[in-house]
Specification:
Blueprint: H1 18-28, H2 32-63, H3 75-105, H4 111-145, H5 147-176
Helix pairs in contact: 2-3, 2-4, 3-4, 4-5
Amino acid sequence: MDPPRPPSRQSDPAPDEPADAAWNRAVRDETETERLDRNWNDLLQELRVAQTGVQLLTGLLLTVPFQSRFPELVTQQRVVYLVAISLSIIATGLLIAPVLLHRLLFRRHARRWLVASGQRFAVVGLATLGLAVVAVVDLIFDVVLGTVAGVIAAACALAVFAALWLVFPMVVRRRAD
């Protein structure tokens, strides 16, 4: 027999909703502290995946101006490059911020605040990373095939990210509720 499903959160998506905590206690036999520790560990595992990608992207972008063809870029391509590197650096900061928060809040019994803040940083950081990748796709296709190809490729990349990172999770969430 399947365990009971957690209560619907359509009216209030807050992660610390009392009904959700009650469900965790009943089904997982988990205290509030254990739940927060599990949520924090889950978040850290997810961030490890994202941090590797964003750090590689940022490192790659930091080398671009030192390539021999960089001076050949037109103004519009340089602007796209600067947008891409800026977004990538912001995403790096956002995705690493929860680790620094943990160090600064260590032994301060602030796990609830840490998990909630880490969740926000992760979501905004991933969205920023997606936009950085879209800008990089635009730049690469623009340089290789032209402006129209860059715009089309960037639109396709944006559509893919929106479908995988927004639409699909919302559909699954709605079905789970």
